[in-house]
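We include this case.
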Amino acid sequence: MPFWDPIILLSQIISIQSLHYLTLAILLPPALSLSGRSLSFYGGPANINFIMSWQELAGRSSLPSASSIDGIYSHGTRIATSMTLKSVDMSDYGRRWIIAFTWFLAAFADVYYLYTFIRKPRLILDFTLTLFGLHIILTTYYTASFPTSLFFWLVMISCSSVVILLTEQLCVRRELSQDFQPVVATEDPEDHESEPADDTHNIELTPIANTS
């Protein structure tokens, strides 16, 4: 029975999750900057919102509505003030394709991480589902809303499928190559000398008696 160490298991989960977000943090800012889209309202392309918010991947605005204070005037004199909420539509469906493409690049990086640190084909499915499952939990907590975008779920399912299929294939090929390595036997001169001499050339053939 294989030894199960919860400390090692937890450290592997944290390592894979951290490497996944680190990869997104490296790839997303230059990808968003090269897109030529204005991101001044979001704090620039390095905003953590683009990684942790499912609404950004869905192409929806996650910014709060803008507010303005208006005055109520009577004969030129302001007698009261009122706050008016104005809905600001900051949705960008082109930006979501850039984020989705970056997720696919990060998925290929996840293949390398799992191939290097997990190694066992039977564990790839569990660790991949844990990786994307934790992201769904974290993005739900970050945005205070459960993901309801079909595009978001399609990206998550597609990326996880790519990671599972590619990593399992690579791990299985590695194990097969290690299990079926040819073993070259070396001859020991002492064993060769201790073997009995081959007397096949000295065998005498006796005629078979004719019983008829």
Q: What stands out?
A: The first helix runs from residue 6 to 34. The longest strand covers residues 77-86. The beta strands are 66-74, 77-86. The chain has seven helices and two strands.
